[in-house]
């Protein structure tokens, strides 16, 4: 059972996972019309695969079923902003691999992960429609979000797709904004919430608990000396980690789920003004050696902010209180 399916089961979103092996991942769209003669394509970046993205993809998959076509996603990697204006590139909500895993779990069969280059950035919107969508892919249906832009200087919009689709024989479907409690779901909104530690609110916009993937690496062993051994997680530098503080978490290791608490921060009690942030997880009732293992950490609740304590004994008392609070909320 894949992670996409387990996310759906635990966090209440219907992701009909077919198996990641059935996702055809391509980095070149040349002559793809001969392999997939009836393509239904979704356009976008899909960072976070939040509720708005899920709405687009689920509609895309359903339309593909009705038209007897293949549901696919056309996206760029790396993110166009990281190429055009790297100083403004936002931190990512998901790694590329995890994003593809979730997209596959939603029923997409073809994913075009096209390398974004300056040459591609200079392509006028009309040429992208004529040469790529129609010439190489020969799409029968296109899905785009209400705020999607494409082509040179982002001049292409959903209205551009609507204007040109009759001439090239494909339909255009524009997905309107998805709202939660009157607020539009967006990757920007989710980043803002996570940067403030508001993981439960972020979950409402994502449709699942925010999480990060990483590898357990060796630390200084201080947690074990205090009686609370921790797994230190090494994550991708491009991924957004929630605000410093202590969280109630669930950790997935090798298909098994474990409850625990996570600390994000610089451990000021011992390191003072150390600038490097750490993500360390104390799992309840797990005594295994986890070094080198992959771990997915789901942030369930924010418990408290990062604090500097006067002594190790004071810190131990607070950790005991954190554990009690996390267990009480299970």
Can you give a write-up of this model?
With 330 residues, this protein is an alpha/beta fold. It folds into two domains: 3-180, HUPs (Rossmann fold), CATH 3.40.50.620; 210-328, Elongation Factor Tu (Ef-tu), domain 3 (Beta Barrel), CATH 2.40.30.30. 33% of the residues lie in helices and 26% in strands. It has helices at 3-11, 51-67, 80-84, 96-105, 118-121, 125-136, 158-168, 187-194, 199-206, 222-226, 268-271, 312-328, and strands at residues 24-26, 39-43, 70-77, 110-115, 139-145, 171-175, 179-180, 183-184, 211-217, 231-234, 245-253, 256-265, 278-283, 294-304. The protein has a six-stranded parallel sheet. Strand 5, helix 7 and strand 6 (171-175) form a beta-alpha-beta unit. Helix 6 (125-136) packs across helix 7 (158-168) and helix 8 runs antiparallel to helix 9 (199-206).
The low-confidence runs, each spanning 5 or more residues with pLDDT under 50, are: 1-20
Mean pLDDT, rounded to whole units? 88
Q: Which percent bin holds the helix content?
A: 25-40%
Beta-strand segment tally: 14
Largest pleated sheet: 6 strands, parallel
Note the beta-strand portion.
25-35%
- Indicate the radius of gyration in whole angstroms: 22 Å
Q: Name the shape in a single word.
A: elongated
**Structural class computed from helices and strand pairing:** alpha/beta
CATH top-level class of the largest domain: Alpha Beta
Give the name of the CATH superfamily of the largest domain: HUPs
**N- to C-terminal separation?**
24 Å
Number of helices: 12
Element pattern in H and E: HEEHEHHEHHEHEEEHHEHEEEHEEH
Architecture per CATH nomenclature, i.e. the level-2 architecture of the largest domain: 3-Layer(aba) Sandwich
- List the strand order in the largest sheet: 1-4-3-2-5-6
CATH topology of the largest domain: Rossmann fold
- List the domain count as a whole number: 2
């Amino acid at each position: 059972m894949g992670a996409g399916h387990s996310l759906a089961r635990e966090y209440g979103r219907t992701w009909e996972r077919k198996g990641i092996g059935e996702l055809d991942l391509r980095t070149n769209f040349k002559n793809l019309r001969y392999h997939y003669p009836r393509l239904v394509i979704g356009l976008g970046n899909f960072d976070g695969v939040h509720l708005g993205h899920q709405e687009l993809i689920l509609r895309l998959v359903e339309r593909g079923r009705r038209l007897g076509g293949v549901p696919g996603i056309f996206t760029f990697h790396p993110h166009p902003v990281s190429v055009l204006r790297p100083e403004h590139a936002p931190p990512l909500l998901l790694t590329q691999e995890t994003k593809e895993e979730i997209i596959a779990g939603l029923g997409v069969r073809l994913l075009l992960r096209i390398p974004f280059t300056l040459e591609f950035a200079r392509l006028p919107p009309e040429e992208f429609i004529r040469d790529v969508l129609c010439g190489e892919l020969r799409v029968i249906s296109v899905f785009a979000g209400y705020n999607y832009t494409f082509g040179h200087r982002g001049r292409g919009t959903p209205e551009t797709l609507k204007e040109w689709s009759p001439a090239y024989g494909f339909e255009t479907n524009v997905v309107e904004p998805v709202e939660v409690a009157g607020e539009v779901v967006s990757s920007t909104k989710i980043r803002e919430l996570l940067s403030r530690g508001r993981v439960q609110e972020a979950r409402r916009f994502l449709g699942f608990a925010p999480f990060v993937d990483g590898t357990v690496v060796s630390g200084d062993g201080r947690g074990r000396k205090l009686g609370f051994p921790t797994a230190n997680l090494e994550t991708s530098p491009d991924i957004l980690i929630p605000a410093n503080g202590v969280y109630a978490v669930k950790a997935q290791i090798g298909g098994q789920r474990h409850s625990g608490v996570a600390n994000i921060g610089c451990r000021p009690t011992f390191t003072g003004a150390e600038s490097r942030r750490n993500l360390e997880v104390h799992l309840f009732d797990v005594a295994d050696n986890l070094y080198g293992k992959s771990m997915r950490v789901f942030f369930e609740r924010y418990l408290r902010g990062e604090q500097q304590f006067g002594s190790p004994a004071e810190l131990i008392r607070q950790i005991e209180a954190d554990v009690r609070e996390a267990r009480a909320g299970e």
